[in-house]
Amino acid sequence: MTRAVITGLGVVSPIGIGVPAFADSLFAGRSGIGPLAGMPDRPLSIPVAAQVRGFDPAAHVDPKRLNLLDRTSQFALVAAREAVGMAGLSFAGPLSERTGVVLGIGVGGMTTLDDAFLRLYGEGANRLHPLTIPRLMFSAPAAHLSMEYGITGPAFAASSACASSGHALGMALLLLRAGMADVVLAGGAEASLSFGALKGWEAMRIASPDTCRPFSKDRSGMVLGEGAAVLVLETEEHARRRGAEVLAELAGVGLGADAGDITAPDPQGAARAMRAALKDARLDPDAVDYVNAHGTATAANDVAEAQAIHAVFGARAARLPVSSSKSMFGHALGAAGALEAVTTVLALTHSIVPPTANFTEPDPACPVDAVPNAAREVPMTVALSNSFAFGGLNAVLALRRV
Is the dihedral of CA 261, 264, 265, 267 positive or negative? Predict the structure, then answer.
């Protein structure tokens, strides 16, 4: 079977722009969650979020081009540039046709949509900006990456709510295995912290009033985030042939659906996806050294995920390190799985498990080793990264140190 390796990483996140800053915050357990800024002076019961602060679009994109890019696409472009630079790739010549782009997008250009609806319904405008649709469409970030590098291979978006970029990375793996590409830029992006989107989340009553405490007994809900992460995946043969530094292997993917409830998680569905990822990677559960949890800090999700982990790992589950990095950079929806895949690669390469920040008290209903508040040095070879979405759409990645 064709092996897929990771040769580049790029990140725009609430805990750091660029991989060095991101890794430094990640292992230090520094949270990017803070008071929500930039919203209209109107009632909103969501007081905190994990926002990307200090991001100046004009520092990264020609002002003449900025008009074409929603904040989601801006994040994706900056993350991709870092990943491609780290991988040392040029797409000139035949590689252009042998490279793909697959990005996970959960809700698309919500800031663009909010601005358009404000003009239309709030200000009574008769016309919208002519680039409204090209800016907000789910496939815009993938299109902009293909244009940035002249990539003419398969390019598309994957959308499955909070599992979108997990599915995108899975699709990248399948493209490489199928021989349809030698290189794929894969990951996800999201910038949905608009007033209209937040009012939708407010109505669901699952957002925390203070911070994100996955697996803690007093957890109070999810904290929304934003950002982007892009990984460069190559066939092992292609990477070795050009002498690239290999960071890790994407060894397997497990995809599945609960076929149950539109919002309530099903432990059996999550367990099936984890088992499928291990089977695809030809790994035994005993080989897993760390699980990067979906870990949203909602009452139902954390219990369901803990139950799924116990179903897969049995007696080992209680002592297997299981941490949630959403405790630091929030829940970035379609970008979550990509940010967490980068987190997992960094964990493997440094042999350090990032902590579950803000942890207070263990919950007997979530009997996992959540690595509370402080990173832990652990010899690691294999890790799983979980993404479980509304609608029961699940994606689990199996990553291996090389």
Answer: negative
What's the pLDDT at 354?
98
Q: Is 308 a domain residue?
A: yes
Single out the catalytic residue among 167, 238, 294, 310.
294
Residue 387 dihedral angles phi and psi, to the nearest 5°: -135, 120
The angle formed by the CA atoms of residues 113, 117 and 122, to the nearest 5 degrees, is 150
Burial (Cβ within 10 Å: 0-12, 13-18, ≥19) of residue 202: middle
Specify the amino acid at residue 177. R
Between CA 366 and CA 371 the distance in angstroms is 13
**At 45, phi and psi to the nearest 5?**
-90, 15
Q: Which of 162, 167, 212, 366 is flagged as catalytic? A: 162
247 in any annotated domain: no
User: Are 291 and 311 a contacting pair, CB within 8 Å?
Assistant: no
Q: Are residues 214 and 323 in the same domain?
A: no
Question: Quick one: pLDDT at residue 313?
Answer: 98
Residues 268 and 293 in one domain: yes
- Phi then psi for 154, rounded to 5 degrees? -60, 130
For residues 213 and 305, membership in a common domain is answered with no
pTM score above 0.70:
yes
Could you tell me if residue 246 is inside a domain?
no
Question: Known catalytic residue: 331?
Answer: yes
pLDDT, the chain, mean: 97
Same domain, 229 and 328: no
Separation CA 263–CA 213 (nearest Å): 20
Question: 1 pLDDT exceeds 90?
Answer: no
Q: In terms of domains, do 103 and 30 share one?
A: yes
Over residues 49-74, the pLDDT tens digits come to 999 999 999 999 999 899 999 999 99
Selecting among 144, 238, 331, 366, the annotated active-site residue is 331
Does residue 176 share a domain with residue 73? yes
Phi and psi dihedrals of 48, rounded to 5? -130, 155
Q: Are 348 and 384 in contact (CB under 8 A)?
A: no
Q: Is residue 305 part of a domain?
A: yes
